[in-house]
User: Fold Bifunctional ligase/repressor BirA from Sporosarcina luteola.
Amino acid sequence: QKHLGTSSYGRTIDYYESVQSTQIIAHDAAQAEAADGTLIVAEEQTAGKGRLSRPWSSTANKGIWMSLIIRPSLMPQQAPQMTLVSAVAIVRAIEELTQLEATIKWPNDIMINGKKMTGILTELQSDPDRVKAIIIGIGMNVNQGEDDFPDELKPIATSLKMATGEHIDRAKLIAGILNYLELYTKMYEKHGFGPIKLLWEGYSNTAGKRVRAVMLNETIEGTALGISEEGLLELRLDDGSVRGIYSADIVLQ
Ligand code: BTN
Assistant:
């Protein structure tokens, strides 16, 4: 809890040695009225989950596997943008602690040297007109070495330690992330998505690039223009039309 300067985020921490998924525990806790800012963190996940129900590799003691329960005053349709708010907060915290320049690959990947270092999974509990809770799941590769990753991840995954050559203090990094996350969430609640969008576009490696967007039923190519107020990725297609993409896997060309 070094340097935690928040008013609510991370003020309650449930710490586990080993769990299936912190995300599942956080959902149950949120349903049981856990307070705004409650953090679930584990040393190891035996069934970590990624976006689109993919598995998420969560080696023991080396990464940050955590789920934060927040109860912001937002409308349910404003919840998906919390993935982008979180990405900006994480990049800022990494920058501050390590001086590394991480970039954001839309929607939820944080990249270093072209490899994935962090993934974010944002899930919502809501009434039709009101957010009850948002669960922000963050999986970060921190102190892994190349050998800690399963073979299929070796070409595409990296860790902070691999990028800096140094062991990273995970507690410090968590505190930094929570500080920025609380700050930026408040900014989003008060001033809308405009200021976050600007920050996001500054850190993005996607805006301006030629990309292929692989969706469930189709694949399209175009130039990424930026993100919309709703957090959609805007692509200019070759016929000149502009299309907003809600969810896809992005391949940078
Ligand atoms: C992705 O890039 O697909 C998102 C990965 C999110 C992983 C984190 S680790 C902590 C939390 N618990 C989970 O089971 N998943 C998220």
